[in-house]
């Protein structure tokens, strides 16, 4: 552990952050800077540096997802960063979807390469040529693989750290099954993996099936997790796709089934945006004092701040050290901040980093055999008897997660309004609401809504069954589904 345990290098408390509901952009940039999460001064547009305070959270998010994927039968792998041009071109719909955003490697030293290389924008065209070598018989299926890597897309829209960059961290799975039933059941498993981890991160989300014209290039159907940002926009943080036999056909992946027939497996892929999940975590829970995080995500679960007074410095320090040992032995990620900063500076720092619990020990606490326990999510203090502290921290860890998750869900629920007409949609879009409406399912309507309001039809919920009870709110034709519309980041 570094000497400062993750403390910020600047010690002077600054003015509180702006209100994130009012000025999310400034709030976000300031948090990334003050909590020393992301440095945007790298010098290449769309590429940022993840500093240790961010990487510790990122690693934890990776562990959570990887653990869930592996317990569902996924195995880790690592594909090269580069894809040969010939392979990249083999599934035409897919290529069209990514063509404009691809980085190419064309030279080495002074010499042009014999074959131009694609820097992966996603890895379907990297893995399928390998699957054609690995899959032969029904006994090779199902095959479930994943990798935790960065992908590269030359985004032309304005880039924003973690939200939209030209390099972003993610996990991608590539799974193959003997039939459609197996593949579609994997889609449901993927949605469960995302739900489980996002629940543990306290995030609220809409799980939607994307409309047909809005699918992943080369997919038959796409499902997404959309998180709500404090400005009313939604952010896609994970997507899973049923690919049918598009890729296995294009790349000649075949297997011999139990009856001796040669067939193409059905496949799926699941993309989990780790950078975006971090952004959603920061924006959903943070406040004007910085990050707010559940236990297990912050640099420390508990920070002990001794508040020594003349005459009892030793007693305060002795109690602080004793508690540190006891809590560490009990499995807490605890840190004793015995630096020379003032208690006020320390409070500011650990608030900024979102440390969920802080223990303050001064003269009263030593004499009264208790501690003052501060919780970051509510910014409140309580007295806890020394002997009750461990139990209280275990309980607090659950309370904080439940509290920030409830707040996130309440905000999401309160952000949704029903629209019955074109006027409703235009008015609610002007107010920045998430809109629920009956919809005809036509691309033309979605295009018009986008042009007139800037809103996107995000799709229909898959976690809740909702049936249309009227005509399309936009065009008045018969409605085939209930969809959610929002401004997407
Ligand atoms: Zn319509």
From TrEMBL:
Q: Which reaction does it catalyse?
A: tRNA(Pro) + L-proline + ATP = L-prolyl-tRNA(Pro) + AMP + diphosphate
Give the first-level EC class, as a single word. ligase
Q: Which Pfam families does the record match to this protein? A: HGTP_anticodon, ProRS-C_1, tRNA-synt_2b
Q: Where in the cell is it found?
A: Cytoplasm
The terms describing its cellular component in GO are: aminoacyl-tRNA synthetase multienzyme complex; cytoplasm
Q: Which SMART domains match?
A: ProRS-C_1
- Keywords for this entry? Aminoacyl-tRNA synthetase, ATP-binding, Cytoplasm, Ligase, Nucleotide-binding, Protein biosynthesis
Among SUPFAM superfamilies, the record links this protein to:
C-terminal domain of ProRS, Class II aaRS ABD-related, Class II aaRS and biotin synthetases
Which terms does the UniProt entry file under GO BP? Answer: prolyl-tRNA aminoacylation
- Looking at the record, the residues that make up the Aminoacyl-transfer RNA synthetases class-II family profile domain are 56-294
Q: What is its EC number?
A: 6.1.1.15
Offer an example of a GO molecular function term for this protein: proline-tRNA ligase activity
Reported function: Catalyzes the attachment of proline to tRNA(Pro) in a two-step reaction: proline is first activated by ATP to form Pro-AMP and then transferred to the acceptor end of tRNA(Pro).
* Notes concerning its domains: Consists of three domains: the N-terminal catalytic domain, the anticodon-binding domain and the C-terminal extension.
The family classification in the record reads: Belongs to the class-II aminoacyl-tRNA synthetase family. ProS type 3 subfamily.
Known partners and oligomeric status: Homodimer.
Name the NCBIfam families for this protein: proS_fam_I
Name of the protein in question? Proline--tRNA ligase
The beginning of the lineage is: Archaea, Nitrososphaerota, Conexivisphaeria, Conexivisphaerales, Conexivisphaeraceae
